[in-house]
Amino acid sequence: MKKTVIILGMTFVAFASFATASSKELAIKNKIEIPAYSASPLHRAICKGDIEKVKKCIEYGADVNKISRKMTPLMLAARYNHFEIIKILLANGAKSSIVNEQGFKALDYANYAKATESIAILEKSRR
Predict the structure, then answer these.
(1) What are φ and ψ of residue 85, in 5° steps?
(2) Got the DSSP string for 42-99?
(3) Closest CA to 87 of 43, 44, 118
(4) Which residue, among 44, 42, 126, 117, has the nearest Cα to 90 in the 3D structure?
(5) Measured between alpha carbons, how far is 58 from 81 in angstroms, rounded to an integer?
(6) Distance CA 37, CA 111 (A)
(7) Triad 109, 113, 118: Cα angle to 5°
(8) According to the model, what pLDDT value does residue 8 have?
(9) Is a pLDDT exceeding 80 seen at residue 114?
(10) How many Cβ atoms from other residues are within 10 Å of residue 42's Cβ?
(11) Rounded CA gap, 53 and 15, in Å?
(12) Which residues contact 91 (CB under 8 A, 6 or more apart)?
């Protein structure tokens, strides 16, 4: 009798753990992951410092003030000290006064990166 109770108990525990694991696997398999945001082609070109791609993106109508990954193209260019790209963006209507969710402007990112050329251009554009 003791053996039967022990075997039944072990079977119950094994079945319960299997059932719990199976339901977790189903929940994981049925979960659809959708990226919250992705970078625009303009943003990627700026990160790479590819001036020609930046010009092409703008030529084809990219929004120079679009916030992607919590930064505008101008903020990215300032952060990475791509001062040639900053000049292009400003010439094509980029606004240096835009504030992101963290409360930063492009000039704040340039100051953070100690990007002296970018700081000079952005301060000049404020006037």
Answers:
(1) -70, -35
(2) HHHHHHHT-HHHHHHHHHTT--TT--BTTB-HHHHHHHTT-HHHHHHHHHTT--TT--
(3) 118
(4) 126
(5) 19
(6) 26
(7) 70
(8) 65
(9) yes
(10) 24
(11) 59
(12) none
* Tokens describing residue 126: 């404020």
Token pair 């339901």 in the structure block, residue: 23
Task: Of 84, 93, 88, 80, give the one whose Cα is nearest residue 44.
Answer: 80
Residues with Cβ within 8 Å of residue 7, at least 6 apart in sequence: none
Is residue 29 very low, low, confident or very high in pLDDT (cuts 50, 70, 90)?
A: very low
Alpha carbons 27 and 16: distance in angstroms, whole number? 17
For residues 36-52, give the mean pLDDT: 85
